[in-house]
Fold each of these.
Amino acid sequence: MKITDVRTVLLTAPYGIEGTHTRRRSAAFVEVETDEGVIGIGETYAGVYVPELVPGIVELYKQVLVGRDVNPTRLYRDCYWVTGYCGRTGLTVMVLAGIECALWDALGKHRDAPLHELLGGAVHDRLPLYASGGVPTLSRDQLAAQAAQARTDGYRGFKMRANPVAYQPGIEAERVALVREALGPDMLLAVDAVQSLNTRPWSIKQVLRLLDALAPYDLAWAEEFLPPLDPEPYAELRGRTSTPISGGEGITTAAVFEQWLRAGAFDIAQPDPTIIGGIGEARRACEAAAAHHVQVAMHVWGSAPTITANYHLGFTQSNCVMLERPVMGNPLETEMLAEPLDVQDGHVSPPRAPGLGAVLTDEIKARFPYEPGSASMFG
Ligand SMILES: [Mg+2]
């Protein structure tokens, strides 16, 4: 099966619920067309932040891909070295992630096999899901209602966001207390400081004071309370708190992920194929985490091809303990699924549709046309 074309599809969809900071969100998908009539679909998380830059980078890699056999591992390697001088990590790798996922999707569709089977098979019959939302712009009532809904819907946990652009331990503790009250004592509760994307990041001592304020509410983990720029402060933080420390969603390449693991940065690692460089790099990151006795909870925050790529990979990794399910009201999360997720009692089963299990029909493309200037911006 040879590649005949590679192209980017940008879409913009309504997003969020009442109270969220933005009501639209863009996404970038890669389509890999083949001479067998199969079209593989992948997503790059770069589409949320720099959608207009994605097509140019895809065009660059297209020169490596057209005419070649669909071999995700080999083609990732060959593409990676093309931009090795200027893009060993970061945006080029993130775009390449979308291509690599599309190659796996094409392979799975061609063989009529779900991705997890191509990777050797699922090692879990089902995995617990946690609902992910709780953005800082929600009012207290909206936040409590979202947490209560997660409980009603059977999720095994809930993840909320701290406000990374303010340092307010008292307010964060009140919001976390509200959520714990809504969840009850048994549901997992995690707090994410959204990569601490802040022009005035918190210091380690500030984070320790905040974690002390949150200690009564039994956090499953504190996610990226420090800027994810250097693993050493993460390791220091881990050594000074009993709260598990998680992170890694924005890391590109397995090699960098391994550096963070070697430094002892994480109790829970959160790689994402659509960022780190694709399924192969994310698998290496998960395996490195296992070698360091670190658990994995895949980062899942995108459209259907991102959700399913992460779920398939998580199902093949023994150290994957939980999967994230965004509850942000994004139609591209649900309407691009080839089959609805099989969720029972707050646990999801391995997706069974071929490849990643996502579709990108002409109808979806027409319904969610790209809106220029719709990049998500922090700050
Ligand atoms: Mg996060």
Amino acid sequence: MRGTVLRAQSGFFWVQTENGLLECRLRGRLKKERQATDIAVIGDAVEVVQVSPEQGAIEAVLPRQTRLARRAAGTKGLWKEDVLVANADQVLLVFACTAPDFHPRMLDRYLVITAFNELDAVIIANKVDLVDPERARALFALYERIGYPVLYTSVKTGQGIAELRDRLAGRISVVTGKSGVGKSSLLNAVQPDLGLATSEVSSAIHKGRHTTTVAELIPLSMPGGGYVADTPGIREIGLWRIPEDELDWCFQEFQPVLGQCEFNNCTHDHEPGCAVHAAVKQGIIPCERYESYLKLHAELASG
Ligand SMILES: Nc1nc2c(ncn2[C@@H]2O[C@H](COP(=O)(O)OP(=O)(O)O)[C@@H](O)[C@H]2O)c(=O)[nH]1
Ligand SMILES: [Mg+2]
Ligand SMILES: [Zn+2]
């Protein structure tokens, strides 16, 4: 039987199958191959054999279509890849137009991570009800210009919620963004029976608890289905390590001019004959994004 891993914890995997949710362990043969935590992660498509009404065994993990991974230094100077979600179709980057303030540098960071993982990014500009429509547009116009989809939403007025629902239908989506921007409220608006706790209710009770929360995929009951990943690990996104010479490619509007610099190891910082710098001067690449690139590059280069 085919299934999808919704949750993984301490060697147990909760797998959604046509016969319902099964609590599974890995077959011995699979376990020997690598560490259990690497073999199956949320989002993985697996082959399971049912052993009782509520239990099964994972026989095989199918090849991953995509992966959202964190790279960490491993042994002997090698990179170790820590996959957080398999088979995600897109990452929703949720920001508020205000309360909390919008920080474009943070958005640039997220966009680098999604590009590096070769995942589609969708920007959600939430709480549009709190600002002038023109102000909201002005905050995110740059990102629309460089080709990212931006969805303007409000949980208060319902603006953009139907569109968000369409975006989620039939896909595996990772939802991320800092606390308070409205992620839980948006998902509750899309599907009221989720009943996710929102800040007023949760912050006092669950303070500091998010670090121990188990990552999981939440099934959506809308036509077409779909899943959203609630992954606490995404919070540490800023710490992800990306090779410094691959950073330029992660700024998607730089891509058309890459390879045209005078030096093929150009860092696009101070070198003469830099095509990226020239594109910035001509207004083809926005200066804000170029500044973000320089900051992140310096950060990666220093350590
Ligand atoms: N005015 C307004 N407030 C919102 C909106 N979305 C969420 N909020 C409020 O913002 C706060 C944080 O929302 P929550 O969903 O818990 O954010 P999360 O931490 O990202 O999951 C709550 O007080 C929500 O009621 C919105 O579109 N407009
Ligand atoms: Mg929340
Ligand atoms: Zn250059």
